[in-house]
């Protein structure tokens, strides 16, 4: 089963990205032309806007990278802080469960929730904005090119922080109490304990959290599909979505380009995995 | 019930030889203890007999049958593990009944036997509990029960008492011994605890580095250790060893230890000359075979008190002679001060001499 | 409580509030008529309680959630059981028996875990159309089962490694065959791990959108996650109905989570940490 539905398709995709496709049939070797076409397309890499340092749409590849750069550090750090903070809070377990719900619900619903809170009229974000007197900025945040991508990224922090928090909580429990007690007796302050003891001891967890978060940020699909469909004008598009459009949405399908996109995606994933692996081995 | 014979057993893990050409005979109904420090190969030997490990070389017989190729379940053995290895999801009753169920005994027979064993081990009231709800001692009994219920040919026990607290261990030692006497089942018992070995075994097999050092009754192992290792391993505190060389002067033989000389008797000298591979020797004498004197005596060796360890009725006095320390076991002596001058003398009949190179016993 | 502790509590509960508000909003929106929530579910006047949205989406004409629920369940249950059965045997051999190229095979499996769904989907789509499995539940079951295998094998292998070998050895001496050791000793001892896996795999399949989107084409085969976006109009979103559908959709994984919370979190933690 693994061979048929996982390994074989994987190899097929990588090989297919170097072939010339006409519909479902292979009509020749394409070399790297699929890649040229993909990377040359402004949907994937919008060089012109990038060079002018403009806002989105900058191309799906750039969007994925922005996603990693913003969401991963934010949800990792927030998860760690929450894990440490909620240890001493009454009802912390309940709060943790609530925050973890983002990992339990379907991503599709996650996307709906984001679209919902950012809605111009029905959305709670705009209600808060009006409440603090900035009513003129109220809008459907996901429907404007400038803000669509960033509001989704911030929203994904809301969804994914639960993961790092739960892992860090488990990690904290596995640190022997005596170590903290010894540090206190040695005269370390709360902050220094956190920085010199907690953080280094949680390093293995941090590596896992970072890895998983980066992989998710690379693969992100459902949220974007449901909340914005990559719009407006590709301003919130991501690689997985572009691949979907090329292979299963546009007519006729461009399998070569789609395979090239996922191969790029896989290369980034594997590259990152190898990097982390070497980090761990060190 | 059956005898067990191990012939030239060798077992390697990678390039570590866990058991090296071990030959061992266990008589029908005998209680044999495999004794040695951890990593000496005793547990591996037991696991080979059980069929949990396949020997690299050699044969194992149970009864008169060669069992090398038989899986554990067909060897008619029972084993008690150090961790007890109870089935955590089954009640005590089902734990004990499991071997019988696997052999498809009729239900009524299973019930009869389980209850009989439970009565024997006094765990009847625990039958409905899960292993987690039992104390260590109770779990230990259940593990025993599971082994007893089948009436196997051979009992194999891997440090079954080492997880119990000291008091319970002493009690269970006697219990186990009594049970074995009663049932007359051939038993092979692995431990690193020499007291357990001495008190329970009919014969003790002392192992080190995968090699059988000595296989004999407890008293023989104590009084006639065959190697330096056995001499040092058995006895508490362990035997004192002093490096020395054989010196001959005017027809007399001495052991020269630097700080003192020990004069050999005629017979001793003769044995040493015959057996020693060189003049490098080890003089061995147990702490309980040294006498402590406060005044000079004939053949006494002068030293100074280094440390005194009181044990209640007795003392262990560490006496410094030259650069070496000798442990002496002695009844409580009036006043002993650190650095005080004392004299020690050896009980001549209880002095051992070993060949330093081969580590074999000479006397 | 010291001032500092009070402050910590205030911060913590404010964060909790931020996290709960979207759920709260979508829930309130789902039980009120559209006219009352279009300008904000937090305006509580007037407040009319109604389950109309629920019945509307449940019995929707083209995309009835009722049918989607049946489809989702018919896919999620087999796609949970099959990989667990297959993977547990594989994991057991990885943990207990040594055979040639074991380490290589194992590393491959770990590597496969990080493969994105997108990377296999085009060839899988071809395969499924050749096998006539497009638009069938069986196709999705097979795909999810295969995709679940690597992590379940990894998880179970790690769990099996923590089980004391001695217990299995005891069973073998007591007369059990390899088969009996597995089903009478190992499986019952693994129930907590199996509960974790079942909960996670079930939710994973239930929550999946991408595979369903590509392999299930006709509305009568749609699963729940696939149905939800259908309620979003192009320009006007009827939040009452979307909210009701979302609540229904997430209720299933939430119930699974609530019932098996302890094992669920253990699964998430164990699945990635030890790996």
Helix content of chain B: 25-40%
Compute the CA-based radius of gyration of chain B. Answer: 25 Å
Number of helices of chain A: 14
Provide the residue-averaged pLDDT of chain A.
84
Rg of chain A, Cα atoms, Å = 22 Å
Strand adjacency order, main sheet of chain B: 6-7-8-3-9-10
Secondary structure: number of strands of chain A: 2
Helix content percent band of chain A: over 70%
Oligomer: heterotrimer
Tell me what the structure shows.
- Chain A is mostly helical and 282 residues long.
- Chain A has a single domain (2-281), classed as MetI-like (MetI-like fold, Orthogonal Bundle), CATH 1.10.3720.10.
- In chain A, 71% of the residues lie in helices and 3% in strands.
- Chain A contains 14 helices and two strands, in the order αββααααααααααααα.
- Chain A has helices spanning 2-16, 33-40, 47-51, 60-86, 92-104, 107-117, 124-131, 145-174, 177-185, 190-201, 203-219, 222-227, 239-249, 255-281, and strands at 19-22, 25-29.
- Chain A starts with a helix and ends with a helix.
- The model of chain B has no long low-confidence stretch (mean pLDDT 89).
- Helices cover 26% and strands 35% of the residues of chain B.
- In chain B, the strands form four sheets. Chain B has a six-stranded mixed β-sheet, with helices on both faces. Chain B has a five-stranded antiparallel β-sheet with strand order 13-12-11-14-20. Chain B has a five-stranded antiparallel β-sheet with strand order 15-19-16-17-18, with no helix packed on it.
- Chain C folds into two domains: 3-50, no CATH class; 65-273, Orthogonal Bundle (MetI-like fold).
- In chain C, helix 3 (52-58) packs across helix 14 (239-259), helix 8 (137-162) packs across helix 15 (261-273) and helix 9 packs across helix 10 (178-189).
- Chains A and C meet through helix 1, helix 4, helix 5, helix 6 and helix 8 of A and helix 1, helix 6, helix 7, helix 8 and helix 11 of C.
């Amino acid at each position: 089963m693994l061979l048929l539905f996982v390994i074989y398709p994987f190899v097929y995709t990588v090989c297919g990205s170097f072939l010339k496709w006409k519909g479902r049939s292979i009509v020749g070797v394409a070399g790297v032309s699929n890649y040229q076409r993909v990377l040359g397309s402004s949907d994937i890499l919008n060089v012109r806007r990038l060079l002018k340092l403009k806002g989105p749409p900058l191309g799906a590849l750039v969007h994925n990278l922005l996603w990693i750069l913003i969401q991963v550090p934010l949800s990792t750090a927030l998860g760690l802080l929450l894990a440490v903070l909620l240890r001493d809070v009454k009802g912390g377990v309940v709060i943790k469960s609530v925050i973890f719900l983002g990992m339990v619900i379907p991503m599709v619903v996650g996307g709906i929730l984001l679209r919902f809170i950012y809605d111009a009229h029905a959305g709670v974000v705009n209600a808060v904005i009006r409440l603090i007197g900035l009513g003129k900025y109220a809008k459907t945040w996901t429907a404007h090119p400038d803000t669509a991508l960033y509001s989704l990224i911030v929203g994904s922090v809301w969804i994914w922080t639960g993961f790092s928090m739960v892992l860090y909580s488990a990690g904290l429990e596995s640190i022997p109490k005596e170590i903290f007690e010894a540090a206190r007796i040695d005269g370390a302050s709360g902050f220094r304990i956190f920085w010199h003891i907690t953080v280094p001891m949680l390093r293995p967890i941090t590596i896992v959290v970072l890895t998983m978060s980066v992989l998710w940020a690379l693969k992100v699909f459902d949220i974007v599909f449901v909340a914005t469909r990559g719009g407006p004008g590709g301003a919130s598009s991501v690689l997985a979505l572009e691949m979907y459009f090329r292979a299963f949405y546009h007519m006729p399908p461009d399998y070569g380009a789609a395979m090239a996109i996922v191969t790029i995606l896989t290369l980034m994933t594997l590259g990152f995995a190898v990097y982390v692996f070497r980090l761990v081995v060190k | 019930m059956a005898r067990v014979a191990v012939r030239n057993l060798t077992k390697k893990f990678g390039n570590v030889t866990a058991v090296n050409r071990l030959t061992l005979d266990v008589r029908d109904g005998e209680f044999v203890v495999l004794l040695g420090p951890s990593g000496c190969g005793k547990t591996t030997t037991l696991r080979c007999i059980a069929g949990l490990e396949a020997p690299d070389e050699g044969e194992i017989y149970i009864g008169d049958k060669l069992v090398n190729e038989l899986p554990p379940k067909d060897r008619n053995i029972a084993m008690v593990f150090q961790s007890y290895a109870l089935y955590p999801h089954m009640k005590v009753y089902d734990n004990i009944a499991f071997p019988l169920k696997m052999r498809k005994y009729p239900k009524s027979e299973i019930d009869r036997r389980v209850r009989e064993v439970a009565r024997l081990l006094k765990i009847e009231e625990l039958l409905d509990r899960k292993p987690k709800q039992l104390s260590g001692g109770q779990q230990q009994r259940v593990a025993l029960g599971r082994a007893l219920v089948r009436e196997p040919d051979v009992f194999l026990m891997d440090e079954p008492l080492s997880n119990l607290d000291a008091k319970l261990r002493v009690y269970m030692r006697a219990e186990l011994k009594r049970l074995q006497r009663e049932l007359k089942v051939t038993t092979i018992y692995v431990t690193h605890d020499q007291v357990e070995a001495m008190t329970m075994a009919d014969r003790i097999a002392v192992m080190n580095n995968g090699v059988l050092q000595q296989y004999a009754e407890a008293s023989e192992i104590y009084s006639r250790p065959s190697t330096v290792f056995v001499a040092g391993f058995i006895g508490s505190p362990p035997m004192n060893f002093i490096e020395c060389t054989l010196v001959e002067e005017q027809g007399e033989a001495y052991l020269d230890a630097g700080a003192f000389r020990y004069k050999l008797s005629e017979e001793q000298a003769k044995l040493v000359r015959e057996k020693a591979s060189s003049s490098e020797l080890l003089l061995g004498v147990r702490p309980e075979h040294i006498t402590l004197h406060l005044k000079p005596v004939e053949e006494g060796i002068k030293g100074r008190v280094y440390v005194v360890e009181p044990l209640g009725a007795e003392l262990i006095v560490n006496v410094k002679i030259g650069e070496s320390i000798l442990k002496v076991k002695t009844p409580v002596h009036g006043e002993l001060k650190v650095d005080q001058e004392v004299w020690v003398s050896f009980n001549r009949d209880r002095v051992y001499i070993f060949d330093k190179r081969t580590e074999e016993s000479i006397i | 409580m010291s001032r500092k502790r009070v402050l910590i509590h205030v911060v913590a509960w404010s964060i909790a509030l931020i996290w709960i508000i979207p759920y709260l909003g979508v829930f309130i929106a789902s039980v009120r008529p559209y006219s009352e929530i279009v300008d904000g579910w937090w305006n509580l006047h007037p407040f009319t309680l109604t389950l109309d949205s629920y019945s509307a989406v449940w019995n929707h004409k083209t995309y009835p959630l009722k049918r989607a629920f049946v489809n989702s369940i018919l896919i999620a249950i087999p796609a949970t059981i099959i990989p667990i059965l297959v993977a547990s045997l594989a994991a057991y051999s990885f943990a207990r028996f040594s055979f040639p190229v074991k380490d290589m095979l194992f590393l491959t499996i770990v590597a496969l875990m990080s493969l994105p769904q997108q990377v296999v989907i085009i060839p899988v789509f071809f395969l499924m159309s050749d096998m006539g499995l497009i638009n069938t539940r069986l196709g999705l079951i097979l795909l999810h089962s295969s995709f679940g295998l690597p992590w379940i094998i990894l998880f179970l292998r790690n769990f099996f490694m923590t089980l004391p070998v001695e217990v299995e050895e005891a069973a073998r001496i007591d007369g059990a065959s390899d088969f009996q050791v597995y089903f009478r000793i190992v499986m019952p001892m693994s129930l907590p791990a199996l509960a974790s896996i079942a909960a996670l795999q079930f939710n994973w399949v239930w929550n999946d959108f991408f595979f369903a989107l590509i392999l299930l084409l006709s509305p009568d085969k749609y699963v729940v996650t696939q149905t939800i976006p259908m309620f979003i109009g192009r320009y006007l979103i009827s939040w009452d109905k979307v909210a009701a559908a979302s609540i229904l959709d997430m209720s299933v994984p939430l119930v699974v989570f609530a019932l098996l919370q302890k094992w669920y979190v253990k699964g998430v933690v164990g699945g990635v940490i030890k790996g």
